[in-house]
Specification:
Number of helices: 13
Strand content: under 5%
Mean pLDDT: 82
Order of helices and strands: HHHHHHHHHHHHH
Length: about 260
């Protein structure tokens, strides 16, 4: 399992190699990420600025407690709100960036596909598919954020549990979304897609969590998106080439 997780991380690392091979195209891929980040910042900064008011509204019963306990409770709830908002922000950022940047990322995806060789499909699923998958990703992200908030309310271990669960679940969602372009282009049905993901569950998770961790670095979400699109294309080709846990087909895109 650890080996598979690390293999997933290496796919993201291989995506960085395309900055050397096609720097102009990768630089162009920063534009939609920057737009998505500005949109998210306009929503999340006011939320964080209002944390004090939010925690007071949520815990009016604590007004009669001793100041130390009141502060501790409200700080803990504020931390949970921040974790939940970061979980949702990571998913919403990915959905927004992929939707806004569809023409940019399509060029990156196709360039990576051509670099890998073999048959490269003409289409990529179309804008309607992209919109539908972005909406689905946001809705699932909301569910993950709600789960993180619920876990965060558990005394003592709530905040760490919410952070870990949010990172794992969000990483998986992001990995599935980013690999979707290559699979949509090949008209891979849902049942087959689920089988492919199940056969490389840890590998997919390693890639997604590594991407999500990069998203948490200041400006990391903007800088990593072109790399993640390239790495996800490599990962999708690997899934298609070696769908079985013990099978490695010729021409597989395994990390070198």
């Amino acid at each position: 399992m650890i080996s598979e997780l690390l293999t997933g991380v290496r796919f993201l690392g291989r995506g960085f190699g395309y900055w050397r091979r096609m720097p102009a195209l990768m630089l162009l891929g920063l534009v939609p990420g920057l737009i998505a980040l500005l949109v998210l910042a306009a929503a999340i900064i006011p939320l964080w600025a209002s944390l004090g008011a939010i925690t007071r509204w949520f815990t009016p019963f604590a007004d009669s407690w001793s100041p130390g306990w009141t502060t501790a409770l409200r700080v803990a709830i504020g931390a949970v709100v921040v974790i939940g908002s970061l979980v949702l922000a990571g998913v919403v950022f990915t959905a927004l960036a992929l939707l806004i940047g569809d023409p940019f990322y399509q060029r990156i995806w196709r360039a990576v596909e051509n670099d890998l060789g073999g048959e490269v499909p003409e289409g990529d699923g179309g804008m309607r598919v992209a919109i539908g998958e972005s909406i689905r990703l946001v809705l699932l992200g909301v569910l993950v954020a709600v789960l993180a908030l619920a876990l965060g309310l558990i005394p003592a271990v709530g905040a760490p549990a919410a952070a870990v669960a949010g990172m794992l679940l969000t990483g998986r969602l992001i990995a599935r979304e980013l690999t979707g372009r290559a699979l949509n282009a090949r008209d891979v049905p849902g049942s087959e897609r689920s089988r492919l993901f199940a056969s490389r569950r840890s590998r997919l998770l390693g890639f997604g969590v590594a991407t999500q961790l990069c998203f948490t670095i200041p400006l990391g979400a903007v800088l990593i998106m072109p790399t993640a699109v390239a790495g996800a294309t490599l990962l999708a080709r690997d899934l298609l080439s070696s769908p079985g846990p013990a099978r490695t087909a010729p021409g597989s895109a395994s990390p070198r």
